[in-house]
Amino acid sequence: MAAAAAALRAWFWNERFWLPHNVTWADLAGEPGPPGSGLQYPRAGHVLSAFPLALGIFAVRLLFERFIAKPCAINLGIQDSGPHRAQPNAILEKVFTSITKSPDGKRLEGLSKQLDWDVRKIQRWFRHRRNQDKPTTLTKFCESMWRFTFYLSIFFYGIRFLWTAPWFWDTRQCWYNYPFQPLTSRLYYYYILELAFYWSLMFSQFTDIKRKDFLIMFVHHLATIGLITFSYMNNMVRVGTLVLCLHDASDFLLEAAKLANYAKYQRLCDAFFMLFGVVFIVTRLGIYPFWILNTTLFESWELIGPYPSWWLFNGLLITLQFLHIIWSYLIIRTAYKALVRGKVSKDDRSDVESSSEEEDVTSNSTKGVFSTSSNGSNRVNGHVASGQWTEEE
Q1: How far is CA 40 from CA 180, 231, 281, 309, 352, in A?
Q2: pTM
Q3: DSSP type of residue 23
Q4: Contact 209, 141 (CB under 8 A)
C-alpha cells in the first residue's frame, strides 16, 4: 500500500506536467528572498488553510444575517411572512407527501369527485402547499445582503491590492522569471480568502435557499475551487488575481439589484440590473479576452513557452470564455424583454409559484427587471438561464 501511495503521489506531482522545462520542485523548495525575509513560493499545503477559514466565513455570515441584515430588512418594511398556507386536508396531504406534488389531469378529476371540490380549487391547494415551505422574502434579502457585502468588500480589496502590483499595469510581469515569483502576504491572503469563500458556498449550499440549479451550481463551485487551487499550486497566482478581480467586478451589482427588488424599490432595481449587465458584458466579453486571455495565451507563450499544465490552465480559461458568451447573450435577451415588455420572467430556478389565479394575472402585468418572486443567484457564473434569472462567476 505504501509503495502504491508513493507511486500515485509521484505520478500526480510529475514535474513535467506541473512545471516548465528544466524546473523541478526542489528549485521551489527554498526561500526566494534573504534568510528571515518571510518570502516563499506557493505550497500545496497552503490551500488547506482555506477550510478553517471557510468555516469562519460561514459563522460570520450567520451572525451577519441575524444581527445586521435582518434588522435592515425589517427597517425597510420586509416582513417575515411566508406564502399563503394551504387549507388542512388529510386526503390531499397524503397525495402530496406520498404520491405527487403536481397531480396530472386524471388524478385531479378523481380528487375532484372524491372531495366534491372544483378542479381549480384543488390546483390552487397544491400551489399553496408547494409554496408554503419556501423561503420568505426576508430570508432571501438576508442571503443577498451577505453576498453583496462580501462581493463588494473583496472586489475593493482586490483593486486596492492590484493597484500597486506591477502586473496590473503590465501583464507581461505575470511571466517574467516564472515560476520563481515570491508569494507576498497580501497576495496569499487575497487568494486564500477567495478560495475559502467558495468553500463556504459549497457548505452553505446545503442550507441556503434551495433552487432547481442546485447540482449545476454545485459543479460550478467545485470547478471554480479546482481552478483557483490549480493556479495556486502552479504559482500562476499573478494572473489568477487578475481573473478573480475581473469576475468580482459585476457580482455585487447583481446582488444590489436583488436587494432593491426585495425592498420593492423597482426603479433602483432596474438601474442596478442595467448597470450590472453593462459591467458584465464589458468585463467578460471585452476585458477578459483582450487582457486576460491575451497574456495567458500569447505573452506567456513568448516568455515561458507551453507545457502540459499550461495547456490545461488555458483550456479552462477558454472554456470560461464560452460560458461568458452564453451568459452575456441571456442577460442581453433578458434586458431586451424588460425594455420591450416592461417585465421579465421570474427566477427560473425558483419553485415558488403564484398562490392564486389572481396572482397569475398579476405576474403578467407590467413590472421592472425583476419580478417580486425572484429568488436571486449564486456567484459570478450562472447569472441567467433560459432568459430568466438564476443565480455568483
Answers
A1: 10, 16, 37, 21, 51
A2: 0.80
A3: -
A4: no
